[in-house]
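To: structure desk
From: M.T.
Subject: fold request, one chain
Message: Could you run this one when you get a chance? Sequence is below, nothing fancy, just the single chain.
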Amino acid sequence: MKLSEDDHAKIAAAVAAAERGTSGEIRCVLADKRDLMQLAFVAGAAALVLPGIALIAGLRPDMLTGLTGGWTVIDPAPAQALQVYVALQAVVFAAVIGIGLSPLARWLMPAAWENAIVRRAAEAQFVALGLTHTRDRTGVLLYVSVAQRRAQVLADIGIHAKAPEPVWDEVVALLVEGLKRGDAAEGFAAAATRTGEILSAHLPPRMDDANELPDHVTEVR
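Reply: Done. Structure tokens follow.
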């Protein structure tokens, strides 16, 4: 999904209008592809955790003789057991990466893993775009992942504690609704407007307020 010049102008105008009523800052990000770094992080975490859970659940190394050259013993030596465990980790890592890159990922990948990938990608953009450097720590990121059909809203510490969680769920819903209609620009515009309303209720504009961050949407490909 690629935004047109009109889409960019529409989103920037909505962000600028929303920020006129608050000292907060809003940034928008549209990610058109999966974040491979975050996918690898989740795959690595799964590879570390799942084999251990499998062993605790009763999986015995001798059930997987095919992974280690066909040895068969009742009580495998430590080196052989370690070989099986490492092989299990490699299989899990490769499986998660394979599923994540598959066109069927959103049906095959557990929702919790998809959510973790999107959140970590959003957190990386939050830092990269300078949202942690606003004067009063009042930045809000509206992040949309087209590939994963998910949205994430991150608010810095200056606003997160003041605005209740349900209001951010409303913003996420507006972003997702835009995705479902195939109109990400409208989703961002509506979400920016609602975010401005939330921010203005808790962070009215200062007399010396300045626009600290750009209003345009960032596209990540």
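Reply (cont.): The longest strand covers residues 25-31. Let me know if you need anything else for the meeting.
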